[in-house]
Design goal:
heterodimer, A: 401 residues, alpha+beta, 2 domains, nine-stranded mixed sheet, 12 helices, elongated, B: alpha/beta, four-stranded antiparallel sheet, 7 helices, globular
Chain lengths: 401, 231
Amino acid sequence: MKLGQAFKMAVKSILAKKGRSFLTMLGIIIGIASVMTIVATVDGYNRKMMEAFEAQGTNKITVSLSLNSGESGFKKIYDYCMGIEEAIGVTPSAEMEGTIKYGAKTSDTMEWKDRPRVVLGSDQYSLCSSFTVARGRDLCSLDIEKYRQVCVLGARAAKTMFDYADPLYQNLMINGVPFQVVGVYAEKDANSGYSMDSVVVLPYTATRFLPNADNGNSGECVVKVRDSQSINKVLTSLQAYIDSLTQNGERGWGYAWSEQQWQEESNSMLTMISVVLGGIAGISLLVGGIGIMNIMLVTVTERTREIGIRRAIGAERSSIVTQFLVESAMICGVGGIIGIVIGYGGTNLAGKVLFEGMSLYPSPTITLEAFAFSVSLGILFGMYPAIKASGLQPVVALRSE
Amino acid sequence: MLITLKDVYKIYGEGLESEVRALDGVSLDIDYGEFVAIAGQSGSGKSTMMNVLGCLDIPTYGDYFLAGKDVSELSDKQLSHIRNKQIGFIFQGYNLIASLNAVENVELPLIYQGVSPFDRRDMAMEALERVGLAGRAKHLPSEMSGGQQQRVAIARAIAAHPPIIMADEPTGALDSKTGQEVLGFLQQLNREGSTILLITHDNGIAATAKRIVRLSDGRIIEDHAQEVDWT
């Protein structure tokens, strides 16, 4: 018997019992739909995180170094990085408590998520944090050397402080000290609540005018590394340098870490979540598969006489096996397709609800895999009923009512 | 010889108190082109005989040679092929598949022979035409009378032009007029060269066969040839 013929028979037999076939498929439909939605949601979360990482600037190492001697930690790190070829930029990154005022507007009365944040940086701040200048100019080395009272605003900070006014060359009062706005960075992280774009960057040396400000002694800084391959190398050497300076905590305190490490950790957590969720979906598929087996066994019993007739007029055992295997594979395959369609809907919904309208769809690979998986499920769980059917003795099968 | 049975036994529950000897040492030769009626009361073992002869069942003891081949040495697959190509079955109670229409039922043996769908439909329609049911090709068995269903079953048996036809009580459920029609078909097929085995409990029907083999309690009690008038 040809396979095409087995397909025709399967279609006929499934259509003859539509209600039952659909109920049988339900397990597979739910299983496949949830697997697809889970996989795509985890994928979307991953993408979201990657976007956030990239907005923060990739290939960064964050360093904190504070020495008991009172020397500037930043200076030490800066000098040390000069000798490392892969380190292409260093900037302090300490944030400062401060009240920012422009005209009648003051940051004190703003909600925390709108409030601009004062960051003390160097001329390499934009390089290290992946900012590009949209208007005006960036901080330059002279600003640092000459203690100029200037600042560059993130796009959101410019918006909250100035609205429709042009911020360029206006003076912002920071803790009562005037700083002139010389530039505005391009927006880079529109969706996030705690935005990178809320920064107000001052030359770290200008803090000499600000009482209680950190002038780099806390040694919080960011080192920009050439590429992701170099991160671990630079990280190791920085850590060793910090350890040598602090004598393991005796003469100070410091650490170096990269977001790559954090990323790896969060990735392993994501993997765990998807394994757990995938396991649950897998169990539902297993239950669906057992349902298929159950129904196929009932079908075989119901059709014992038909099997007897087919065997009597010359069907080989393998033909009977094929007939029932194709039938159960088709039930699962159709269930898989319906599940995939629902999975697309669910994924899209998850993108809208969970990820602020991110357009999220399962990848073609997952779609194909889901289909192939459901068909193999049908073959796997159809095997026992099919073999049972083919093992019936023709005479016995014919005699059954 | 086409069929040779040598000392064949079919015993159910051997050794038990309830042991049943459906065939109890049967020896029989049937040649090509014969028209044999296997007659006997119900329980005489004639259906078991047909199952054994039709390769649907294997004897407990004894040898069965079909066209010189020892059936006990054939694999399940080879037996399937014999049932498929060499033997046309007309079962008691038609045994049509209820979910398939007339022409699809007739096509069944051809499907398992691997005949292409196009030729298959032609051959099946030809067989239906022979039994006068071409106009009912698309009807389900449940939409046909008993006589029509029996004719579909005959069409299925002859569609692949097998050399042997085995019919188990083919007229059992029919009125005498349709019964005569069915017998007429079998006689016609025999004239065209097919070997016919007709199993019946009805002496009147057995009397129309060229040879009568009578069974009782699993043994042959009578075996004689006779002149027939099939006009």
